[in-house]
């Protein structure tokens, strides 16, 4: 029996551009279902919003997202971050640069006391990310 644990992000009207952005960062296959596709739209103006999106990347990452309809309360998520970690310095630094484009760096990608490299940012869609590159050697 296999299991996975992956982030599921919520947006207000920006899930499609967010997921297209993440596909540009990580590559992979992006599937998007709208509320209209399953006759789930309660407001016709929201029919083309994302009911469910899933990005499966060549690295084995899975990222999911949806839009929150206007009839439901929405507050940007707080108190968590999506974390990327590993030992491929060049690849992780590339993700860092791409995710920070149009976003805000909250902690530069630098050498922390425990070694390696670590940084934090908020991307252009308001999602917090942490990137941790393991010490070499």
UniProtKB/TrEMBL annotation:
<protein>
    <submittedName>
        <fullName>VOC family protein</fullName>
    </submittedName>
</protein>
<dbReference type="Pfam" id="PF06983">
    <property type="entry name" value="3-dmu-9_3-mt"/>
</dbReference>
<dbReference type="InterPro" id="IPR028973">
    <property type="entry name" value="PhnB-like"/>
</dbReference>
<dbReference type="InterPro" id="IPR029068">
    <property type="entry name" value="Glyas_Bleomycin-R_OHBP_Dase"/>
</dbReference>
<feature type="domain" description="PhnB-like">
    <location>
        <begin position="6"/>
        <end position="131"/>
    </location>
</feature>
């Amino acid at each position: 029996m296999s299991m996975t644990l992956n982030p599921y992000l919520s947006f207000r009207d920006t899930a499609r551009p967010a997921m297209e952005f993440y596909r540009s960062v990580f590559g992979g296959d992006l599937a998007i279902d709208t509320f209209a596709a399953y006759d789930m739209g309660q407001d016709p103006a929201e029919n083309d919003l994302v009911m469910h999106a899933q990005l499966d990347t060549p690295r084995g990452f899975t990222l999911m997202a949806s839009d929150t309809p206007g009839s439901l309360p929405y507050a940007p998520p707080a108190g968590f971050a999506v974390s990327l970690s590993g030992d491929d310095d060049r690849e992780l630094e590339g993700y860092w640069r791409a995710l920070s484009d149009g976003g805000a760096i909250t902690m530069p990608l630098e050498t922390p006391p425990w070694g390696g490299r670590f940084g934090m940012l908020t991307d252009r869609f308001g999602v917090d990310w942490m990137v941790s590159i393991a010490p070499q050697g």
